[in-house]
Amino acid sequence: MEGYTESAATGILAGINLARMLAGEEPAVPPPTTMLGALCRYVHTADPEHFQPMNANFGLLEPLERPERDKQRKKELLVERALADMDAFAREMRVEVTA
């Protein structure tokens, strides 16, 4: 990952998953509709021969179910979906997320 936010977020997730694994639980990965989940998917599935560090960007996110032509509206919809999906993920993990 590149960038402080991406590095901090993936480090926190790594720590959470270490604690989960030590407790006998499966690692948790956020949905690919969230930026953290999309970054995890990118790292996990990128071609090792052509791997490049990646900053967070909208192109990593899963596409919307209904395509949106207006770029600004598309970004707004992606953010709304990501926030809702991250809230659901946090509830599953029993972690409170504050904005």
- Rg calc: 14 Å
Number of helices: 3
Mean pLDDT score, rounded? 90
- Characterize the main sheet: none
N-to-C span: 23 Å
Give helix and strand order, one letter per element, not per position.
HHH
Unreliable runs: none
Structural class: mainly alpha
Indicate the proportion of strand residues.
under 5%
In total, how many beta strands? 0
What spatial form do the alpha-carbon principal axes imply? globular
Short description:
This protein has 3 helices and no strands.
Q: Which short descriptors sum up this protein?
A:
99 residues; 3 helices; 54% helix; mainly alpha
Structural overview:
Helices cover about 55% and strands about 0% of the residues. It is built from three helices and no strands. It has helices at about 5-20, 35-45, 70-95.
Write the layout of secondary structure elements.
Layout: H1 4-22, H2 35-45, H3 71-93
